Structure formats: structure tokens, C-alpha cells
Amino acid sequence: MASRRTQSPSIIATCKQTRFHLREDRGSGDVDIQGLNITVSSRLASEPGTLESGTAVKTKARGKSRAKGEGVEILSSADLRLKAGVHYGLVGRNGTGKSTILRAMAEKLIPGLPDSLQISFLQQTEWADNKLAGAAGLSRIDGKSPSVGSGKTVLQHVMSSDESRNEVEGKIKVLSHALEETDDQWATVQAIRKLRHDELKRQLFLAQKNASLRSGSRGMEARKALKAAEAKVAESEAELDQKKEECEHDVLQKETQAAVDLLNDLQAQFDAMRIVDIEKEARKVLLGLGFKEASLEQPFNSLSGGWRMRCAMAGVLIQHADIMILDEPTNFLDLLGVIWLENYLTKSERISNKIVILVSHDRDFLNTVCQEIVILRDQKLTYFKGNLSEYEEDVEAQKLYWGRMKEAQDKQIAHMETTIRENMKLGKKTGDDNKLRMAKSRQKKVDDRMGVQVSATGGRFKLNRDLPGYHESRRAEIEVPVDEKGVSIAIPDAPDLRFPGPLISMESILFKYKGRDALVLNGIDLVIHMGDRVGIMGLNGCGKTTLLRSLVGSTGVSKGTVSRHPRLKLGYYSQHAAEELKESVQSDPGTTALSLILREAEGELLEGGARSLLSSLGLVGRTASDVPVAQLSGGQLVRLALARILRGMPHLLILDEITTHLDFHTVVALAEALSSYNGALLLVSHDRYLIRTVVEGKRETSNEDGDGQLDVNSEEEQSRRRHVYVLKGGKLSLQENGVEQFEKSLGKRVRKLLEVG
């Protein structure tokens, strides 16, 4: 069992093989943990019964069953199986605990994970004491996170993310200073003893963990090892407290020689690490993630939050870890950065034995990078060999296969039961024992021989081979896979305009910021009619948000004309809508989604209508009426922000990066809802799936060979005006082949970035 000292709810993890697992063993690099339970407990880890390091000590009052009952259970008797060198995609609904599981792994809270395992972690939300430091560095064995050094440049900050390298380099500096820059042997003795003491404290920490997690004969051995470790630490503390005049000359000589030998060993380790030029790799990764060469030397502290997170990602990517965990890595990247990251990770899987675990709402990203999918559902982990699209196709095929088998068997059972009733009736009436025996035989077949008719290998089921031993049920019942109950999204239709005309038009729009000569928008022409689907893509900083603000009227233009239909109702979702919504209710922390909608409606909407609107977007029941807005998840905030827009029943929806806080299930539901919306849509997004589905009107299907292809929807969908534009250099460029054309145009730049250095 393990938990972390923190002011937030603690994570408690247990597993079936805790007592027998050797925490120091590295083995093949695979992870195989059975019977894993993870609970988020409201009890703080600083209560009695926990180690200073954060590992919970077993006590009779804090057993497994009680711990599980005192919090929210994320996993129950699940199996965590990860193979070295494989890239996994972790999928599950918002709120099921994906980030909690990743955090438990990164902080080594799961008992079966070896302490020597190196784990790098990019987290979606900052949970460490220092937010950005925790996101950028290794989760160290003592639970501490690297700090953000003041005055470091972007490049220096990323290079300092490798804790194992930093630790070796730090020891070398301490010993070199003591041996070379001072003439006092006593300073050298103090330096070697301090390093030795730190290592003994680390060993004591591991011994405490083993002693608290093991029982029986292994527990006795672990407790003996703990006493020995405590004795060594006490002896080391006594040596540190020793005064110079108390130390004999031969001891000085011996300790000095030990310092020289340790320095030579450390230097050899550091030279081996320098075979890979960390500066070269850091520069390559930063450029791939969107930094310019000149910006690598600017102070890290001058960066905005989004660019700091890119630095954090670069720090994670360059580490030589055994497991790399990336939680929503595409949130702060434009399409160039996403495609670069896809290629970088795909290339690394061929040359590295590293386990990679990804959580992302970007379906294309998961399909490209992941070799296997881990599904978190009903507090269990299931595994599928293949990418996300292949998994969904397999689920549909399984539903069809088992559905047909169950339907056929239900018909067979119904026919047999009818025959049984007729034979029983006829046998009793005529006294025909053959009819009664026949009815009894068929009833036995219905009771014992109905169910799954195929073996695990797909062949015909044989009882003595496929189900040996005693069983209450002779065969397993046929279970048809069902869709996981998820959020359904429905968007109300736009009202009639009464008379025709374009909803909005831009003619020869020019825009530049005051004091600057460069044009952000240069000759923009855009016309949107009712029912149109328009997608705008482009790299970060190209002016997409400025264009949208000019459309909605929040930003004036330097030159040109923006015309709107006189009856136009416009709904605008900004890329920071979720964060702005949370800030807007800070003055009234008790505000709920329902009360917010009713207050803004100013009597135009009754409670029933407000609940109906929120329910159509997935905010149902007490979530809408009882949970404060400040406590809603990112995905729920997106839905609430969308509800505020849809309350006015707009003719034109302008959505700027709406998928950022959503899981991929919700993105699919949103895409389906937007596709059936009768009003006009303008989407700005880096999500290729969303643009292809909503704007281009295409769906992912599979042909007879199993290859993915895109099919266009019905005639009604084809009749819509559908255009994908790329904003570059202030100009809108129509993409005749849609997203695919833009992807290909970025391919050459991605290849150059991968070859940098």
C-alpha cells in the first residue's frame, strides 16, 4: 500500500503480489502487476501510520477493505501489464481516473513497480509542489520534484530535466571541489562522508518500504535488513558529527583515496552519458515543438504557460527513462508540432526499449503512435493489440458476431421450449413415456448445453477439453458487448432567418496591431451562408484568433468591411472559454451550472428548459444543480460554456479549439452533434478528425482489406458548402483536398526538424 504526503486527497494502491515482489529487480523491463486496486482517499497522508517518505505502513486498523471503502475506487482487482518497447494508448471516459492511474505510476505508489525504474511524466494538471517543475522532471524515488531554476534559459532548463545525469554531475562537482580546489584533506573526508550518508538514507528508505509491504519469512528478513540499514545510517551520522581533531591520520588517507576512487567511477558514468549529446537532443526537440532558434536563449521565466508546458514536454522527451507517460501532450501544440511528435515517437519505438503510455483526445495522434490500447472501464483494465480505430472496428465486429449468435440461440431455445411444453402436455394426456423422456432430455439440453458454442480458439466447444473440473454452469452465457454509457450531445436547430442572404461576410480585411508594420490579416475575403461548414487551420501565432475576433466584432479591423445578416444570432466559443468561465464565478463560489444559466437567461428560460438544455450537453441531474462550477472538470466546463452559447439558438457557431479538455469519446459525440446541426459552423482546430468529420463530412470506415478510408455522407450532407482554409502570412488559402493537403504541406518541414542536429 502506498500514498503520498499532500494536502490533496491521497492515492492508496495495493496489489496481489506485493509481499513477493523484489522492488530492486529490473528484469526484462516489462511490468506485470496483478490484482491492482487504486483508491483516491479523502484521508490525508500525514495521518499516523505513514512513513515520512509517503509509503503507508500496514496496521490492523487500516486494512485493504477499509481503505477501499474510505475513498473513490479507481481500479479494483485489475491487471497492469506493460511490455518493454510498446507504445500504449490509455482510453476511458472523463472522470474514470486515467490521470490518477498515471500519477500513481509516476510517483511509484504502485507497490509492484521497482524503485530503480526510471519514469518520466508529463501531466495534464500540475499536482507537484512546484507546478512546472513537477511537469518537467522525473518523479524521483523520494517523491521530490526538480525545481525551476531562476535565471536559466529555455535550453538550460530543458537540459536540467534529466535527474540521473544531474545527480552524477552534482556528485562530481562536490568531489572535484573538495579534491582540487581545497588543500584541506578534512574537506574531502566530509564530502565523501556526506555523499555516502545520502546513499545510506536512500537505502534506508527502500528498506522501510520493503519492511512495510512484506510479511511472513520475507517480512522477517526485510525487518532485519531495516535494522541493519538503520544501524548504518546511525553510524554514518556519527561520522558526520566527528570533529577534525578526532580523526586519525590513516583514516584521513583512507577516506581521501575512497573519494578519488568514487570520483573516477562517477566520471566514467558521466562520460558514458555524454555519448548522447543532451544539448543537441534538447535543441532538436525544442525546435520540433515550435521554438525558434533565437528563443532558446531567452529566460525560461519569461515564457507564457503554454510555452512552459512545451518546455516540460521537451524535458520529458529527452530523458532516458524506462517508462514515459504523456497525459494530453497535444493540448498546447499546433498541427506542425503534433505531426512532429507523432514522427518523433514513432521513430523512437524502433530504436528504444522504452514503454510509452499516452492519453489524448486526438484520435489521429493515437492511431499513428499507439501499438496497443488499454481500456479503463468499470474499474478494470483490458488490452487490445492495435490502434484506436482497429479497436473500435473490433468492438463493432464483436457486437455483430455475438449478437447474431445470441439471436440465433434465443430462437432455438424458444423453439425447444415450445416443443417441451407440447411434449409434456401430450405425454401426460396420453401417458406416453417417450414424449415425457423427450421433453426431459430437451429441457436438460436447454439448462446445460445452451450458451457459448465456441472455444477460446474459435473452434467447436467441447466440455471435457474447454471446461474441465466442476462448474455450477456447464457453459458461459453469451454476452453481447454493449456500448459504454457515455455523454450524449444534442445541439438545438437554428431558427428560420425569414429572408435569405449570407450570415456574415468579410471583404478585403486588413488588420495590424498598433505600433507594428506587419499585417496579421492581409486581404481576407470570407462569406458564410446558412448550413455552411468552414474549417480554418494554421500554425500557432498565424492570426486565427484575431480573425475570429474580427468576425464576431470584439476586435475592429484596420481596413475592409465585415457585414452581418440583420437577424443573425451568433455563438462564439473562445479557446479559453473554460478557464474564463471558472474565473467568472470566483466572486460567488456556490454558483452551479443551473443557477448560472437561469441567472443569465433573466427570466426567459424556466428551470425545466434550463435543465433540458444542460442535459442535452451531458450535464444532468445533481451535476447541473448541486456541483459548483469551480468544481466541474475541464470537459464539464466546456459543455457548460457551450450551453451558454446555445441558449440563444444561434444561426452561426464559431468554435475555437473546443476539443482541448474533452476525451475522445466526447469528441466523437460532439462531432456527430455538429454534423447534424442545421446552422452554419466555423471551426478553428488542430484536431484533424473533427475537421474531417464536421467540415469535410467524412467518416472513418474500413474496406475488405481492413484499410481505413473515408466515405462522404448522404446527399443532404454533400449539398452543404464545405471549405477548409489555411491561414498563413495573413492570407486564407483554400485546401482543395482538405486536411490531407495541409498535412502533406507540413511533411517536408517535419522531416527537416527531425534531422536538426
Provide an overview of this structure:
- This protein is an alpha/beta fold.
- Among the domains are: 182 residues, no CATH class; 75 residues; 175 residues, Rossmann fold; 74 residues, no CATH class.
- 44% of the residues lie in helices and 16% in strands.
- It has a 6-stranded mixed sheet with strand order 5-6-7-4-8-9, with helices on both faces.
- Helix 5 packs antiparallel against helix 8, helix 13 packs antiparallel against helix 14 and helix 17 packs across helix 21.
- The longest helix is centred in the middle third of the chain and has 43 residues.
- The protein is flat.
- The two termini are 45 Å apart.
- The N terminus is likely disordered.
- It is found in: Membrane.
- Keywords: ATP-binding, Coiled coil, Nucleotide-binding, Repeat.
Helix content: 40-55%
Question: Low-confidence spans: pLDDT under 50, at least 5 residues?
Answer: 1-7, 44-69, 126-149, 702-710
Largest sheet: 6 strands, mixed
| Number of distinct beta strands | 20
Gap between N and C termini: 45 Å
Query: Mean pLDDT across all residues, rounded?
Result: 80
Content of β-strand: 15-25%
Q: Give the spatial strand order of the biggest sheet.
A: 5-6-7-4-8-9
Q: What is the approximate shape? A: flat
Rg = 32 Å
Give the quaternary arrangement of the chains: single chain
Helical segment count: 25
Structural class determined from secondary elements: alpha/beta
Coiled coil: 219-246
InterPro entries: AAA+_ATPase, ABC_tran_Xtn, ABC_transporter-like_ATP-bd, ABC_transporter-like_CS, ABCF, P-loop_NTPase
Protein name: ABC transporter domain-containing protein
Keywords: ATP-binding, Coiled coil, Nucleotide-binding, Repeat
